[in-house]
Design brief:
This protein has two helices and no strands. By secondary structure, the chain is mostly helical. The protein has one domain (3-51). The longest helix is centred in the last third of the chain and has 27 residues, at 26-52. The radius of gyration is 13 Å and the shape is elongated. It comes from Alteraurantiacibacter buctensis. Residues 1-56 are annotated as: Disordered. This is CsbD family protein. InterPro entries: YjbJ_sf.
């Protein structure tokens, strides 16, 4: 995957995670928090790829 793909997937996961965190169900909130962190990691991965190129 390329830099932009990773960043786009990261943004989507963060957005979905934020929506899930608004739930009144504790399990859904926890899943949303995990998904938000996953999105943050994907964006970081995309940034690293951008800095070093898609060779990583």
């Amino acid at each position: 995957m390329g830099e932009l793909t990773d960043k786009a997937k990261g943004l989507a996961n963060e957005a979905i995670g934020n929506v899930k965190q608004a739930s009144s169900n504790p399990q859904t909130r926890a899943a949303g928090e995990a998904q938000e962190h996953k999105g943050e990691a994907q964006q970081l991965k995309g940034s690293v790829k951008g800095a070093f190129g898609d060779k990583i």
